Amino acid sequence: MSRPRIVLVDGHxxxxxxxxxxxxxxxxxxxxxxNAVYGFASMLLSVLAxxxxxxxxxxFDKGPSFRVRDYAGYKAHRARMPExxxxxxxxVRELVAALALPAIDLDDYEADDLLGTLSRQAEEAGLDVLIxxxxxxxxxxxxEHITVLTSGRRFDDxxxxxPAAVKEKYGLVPAQLxxxxxxxxxxSDAIPGVAGVGEKGAVALLQQYRTLEGIxxxxxxxxxxxxxxxxxxxxxxxxxxHLARIVRDVPVxxxxxxxxxxxxxxxxxxxxxRELEFRSLLxxxxxxxxxxxxxxxxxxxxxxxxVTGAGQLALFGEELLATPPAAPAPGAGLGDxxxxxxxxxxxxxxxxxxxxxxxxxxxxAVDTExxxxxSTQAELVGISLSDREGVAWYLPLRAxxxxxxxxxxxxxxxxxxxxxxxxxxKAGHNLKFDLKVLQRAGLPLAGLAFDPLIAExxxxxxxxxxxxxxxxxxxxxVKMTEIHELIGRGKEQRRMDAVPLKQxxxxxxxxxxxxxxxxxxxKAELEQHQQTALFRxxxxxxxxxxxxxxxxxxxxxxxxxxxxxxxxxGRLAALEQEIYRLAGGPFNVNSTQQLSTVLFTRLxxxxxxxxxxxxxxxSTDAEVLERLRGMHPVVDLILEHRSLSKLxxxxxxxxxQLVNPATGRVHTSYNQTGTVTGRISSSDPNLQxxxxxxxxxxRVRRAFIAEEGWVLVGADYSQVELRIMAHVSGDEGLLAxxxxxxxxxxxxxxxxxxVPLAEVTxxxxxxxxxxxxxxxxxxxxxxxxxxxxxxxEEADSFIRRYFERFPQARAYMERLQREAEERGYxxxxxxxxxxxPELAPGSRLPAQQRQAALRMAINAPIQGTAADLIKLAxxxxxxxxxxxxxxxxxxLQVHDELVLEAPREEVESVIPLIREAMExxxxxxxxxxxxVEVGPNWEEMA
Length: 942
Prior knowledge:
Helix content: 40-55%
Number of strands: 23
CATH topology of the largest domain: Rossmann fold
């Protein structure tokens, strides 16, 4: 007959292990560190789901134990618990309380002693015990009815220790482990042990003589070195055993009634998880009053990954399709989500929507379901709409065989005019995607009024909750169904149009409903933080501009790329032969391990300061190779090989494969929310990272061409970040240099080298350019020295002379850092905020991390303002082109550069429009200047 089970958790040990095992940058959007509490929660929920114990208790340390009194050196070397860990322990206790688990601590004793006592009492009461801990001190407690669960090399690897598993690992029975520590000591706890006796010798002695007493009774039989060591260390051995032994008669009593698992305050727990932003744990919560199940048979030792709990928050039951609730509770997550399966239903829906459109505060939430995530090729599967909280409709255009679908033409006829009506405000999460998909389906969308994705990002550009599912949980407390629950993952994944409508309707309806519910709280917060204008006047209007650029795409010269690929292949082959000659034989140049062996073993290059990888080989990453440059000719060739190989694989060979067969052009995706500075990023493919400082990179740009009869027009802001610095700092020297039309890098060179402007050389200008941009990015003397190849002392001298020449620039930077520390954020000229919670009062960041944050605080307003200016320019330019009735169109945005494709006959009209749009986007004390070039391709412009 099976015995009931109890889980005893070492709270401090588990949280401490998680704190050091999980990334330190695991934080909430407000900057609260959560790595320890997340790891603790994940392990605890996994154990509860796995084991389904009838009872559970969590123990904690509470101050110094009696061991410190008995031996002052006990754990004396351990550093004080980090501040980031201390705050999390309070959260760990909150979690335990929310799960209605008893939390036990006791003055003068460690959590291990509580585990020892409670496990003894539980065993005597007829329970099987599972001790969950982050260290292995508890292995001495293992017996027939007590098992210890700890983690392996990875935090989420589980290892179960039974008596047989302990014997297998240590060659000893559990009770002997105390004597093992008595002999060999324990450096982690500063237990001295016996000097001269290591683990191997201690195990052998215990295997022969069983106990510490047995060993000392047979000292005369031991080898001289052991006999001498043990005689000298007799007192230390007994003290060490005293310190290592877990006390099993602590004055605590196991309260089985309190430890019995039963109902807990689910709402309290959900509120805590929402505050900590642990949405990934929601599906692993125990069921209320979860019954205990039979324990699976245990092998001697088993190891495995995380196990997901069976408990799950179900939001939308299938019955809602047939009998929706009359009045869904606000925020409860339940809704009236209806299928619109006939044209008559569609006409009736549109009539209903027209009525609601005339009401005050009208807002229509729109969401699409598609066959893929590529918005330039995805086919429209369905549309969901919501005009009020808790209500949504789903229009199927594709569905499994035998299920109702609406003809696209009918949707265009009935719904099209409503979607295209700019007077009816529309909301959508990631509106750009829906806009493009609907546009391609002949359903243009106008009246864009709100996008929760953009709003959340404006409020906090580092927010982890940009996705709709995360955002609904964080803002509304609603757990939505994940897409993989419908379409699966990996090889088993199916398209959305293969999912039965009884599943699609509640899923799609929730997307529209939650999107609409998010509008009010996000609007209020935008207003509260003075971000409404930035959202409404800049980011929201940019959505259709970016969508248009993406849909237009850019043409490639495919025959040219094919020729270039062959040429690069030949150059790479020749480089490899030369590398083999210099390296003393062939090897796989792309294998980091083989390269490490060649450089550091065969060629004997210095490994000083070079870290080893997990494979045990010295690193050969880009930073290491740059440091080795010049030490051996082969290093320069390897760097050149890597550069060419990356260029060939990433662009020359990859770009032709990405040409859209329907348009014959490449369509990148511009991510409006991809950076914390406000800059637009590019992906699939990334067209912003094509290198332009090398001849090979420029040759890739030559592949981007215009249509027959058209040309490319490139417009690039000139030194925009330096002009912004001059404006925001008000530095008279910088402003005067820009006013005189000087080359600002030459002006800086004259300052840092203390020479007349006329005597500045090209090398001086190169260094000065690095100084200019380095200081904008908060770079210090060491970083600048590494970049320009001088000593830190020389770099420091450059920086000092720079600030002597431009003192107000330094004053501005110092003011920015103070603002970041006092307010926890900095702002661009348009009011865009970059938050630094780690710098706010009370934060105790390590000095290195703090300095990095302060450097970013200097750069954020300048880089962010530059991002804002190019966005303003894009809005003005699009409006100007439309007003002038020109066919020219924007096709690329790369940092401070815009590229247009224009008919030849429009060029003379387009150039002044570009200048006007970009140079007058914002008024700076150092006026904006734009360089405009025209050519047949992106590289050959003049």
